[in-house]
């Protein structure tokens, strides 16, 4: 971009929370100097926070992506299957066949999905990490007769939300939660207590063990024992899609694009990454977690950086991305929840709410996320986030220079 009238061609891969936010903010603030193209496999918005509800057969309303993005943004239904970050060409697989697109800048906003573990029999596992995995699980749960055993492996947020959701929707099944660490280990004491009581109220058996293999109808545990399981769901973590690695970009061990503190790929200047697709290091040296708390501000930041480029503003020395975390909200089915205060480094710290207020807060969080994008479209530039202006130490406490 070196002429004053040319449009900066920006290709956005994926239109989840991060991709949609970036597109509307950039389109709204870039005036006529930016052309934004968004590629996404579906024409409806997928709210990944509700995938465990989809998997348990609940009706989750779908919103039109084109309406969410508004006019002025080109939306292509398809998947980017091939990308040359050096020459600026991408191939999009569409229902009408492959389409070639040129870009000046490309933003990876392609999110993540359940990471398949490297264990014998891993192909037998189910997941809730993306919409395809959620639909596959939904079909399997529908087929499962009363009284069968279901195991959820992993007691992080996704594991807890998934196992409690299934317990509420299918009380006829026998449920187990299997994890190497205690279910509420991440939380402060009152919240951990609420997690434990929810598991026992919902008759979910907790097993402290590591799964080392999957056989039809059985799980092999590291302690040598076997656990009967008719359907096993892996909630052991997310990984990015393989496109970035296949395109020759520098990626981490989960396939996420390694970025500098301005969210630009460390290997290719034309490439930025936001949300789950990007691996950006926090001031304390840890990675910003795959979360909505990171997806929104990273997208808004990248939009502003690209706008500055499009308007030929000086981007040398552009301030680094910085985000301080506030709280995390966990659903335990539809009637129970925990709202846990965190420190700036995303560790549980201080108060936690566990009653009706927490349930209401979780409902609000899930619905307000889409409203965030609509607000940003109508009033581009309004999204703000708490920064970690002085940097954080490993305990999340501010460090003065
Ligand atoms: C069950 C569940 C519960 C969760 N709960 C919480 C929570 O309570 N709080 C929280 O902060 N986070 C939660 N998360 C994580 C949160 O959903 C993600 O961090 C967030 O969705 C990341 O946003 P994103 O825009 O980066 O990616 P996504 O929302 O995953 O969007 C990426 C989009 O890119 C598309 N895409 C992928 N590859 C391509 C391609 N090659 N070409 C074109 N398009 C492509 C995808 O189809 C998708 O539409 C949860 C996740 C799950 C699965």
Q: How would you explain this protein's 3D organization?
A:
The structure is a single chain. β1, α1 and β2 (34-40) form a beta-alpha-beta unit. The chain has two domains: 8-113 and 238-319, FAD/NAD(P)-binding domain, CATH 3.50.50.60; 116-234, FAD/NAD(P)-binding domain, CATH 3.50.50. It has 401 residues and is an alpha/beta fold. α1 packs parallel to α8. The two termini are 36 Å apart. It has a five-stranded parallel beta sheet, with helices on one face. It has a four-stranded parallel beta sheet with strand order 13-12-11-17. Strands 6-7-8 form a three-stranded antiparallel beta sheet. It has helices spanning 17-29, 51-55, 65-69, 131-143, 157-169, 189-201, 243-246, 292-310, 356-378, and strands at 8-13, 34-40, 44-45, 63-64, 74-77, 79-84, 89-94, 97-102, 105-108, 112-114, 149-153, 174-179, 204-208, 211-215, 218-221, 226-228, 231-234, 238-240, 257-258, 271-273, 278-279, 327-331, 337-342, 348-353. The protein contains nine helices and 24 strands. Bound molecules: flavin-adenine dinucleotide. Flavin-adenine dinucleotide is lined by residues 13-19, 39-41, 46, 48-49, 51-52, 79-80, 109-112, 128-129, 157-158, 161, 241, 243, 275-277, 290-293, 295, 329.
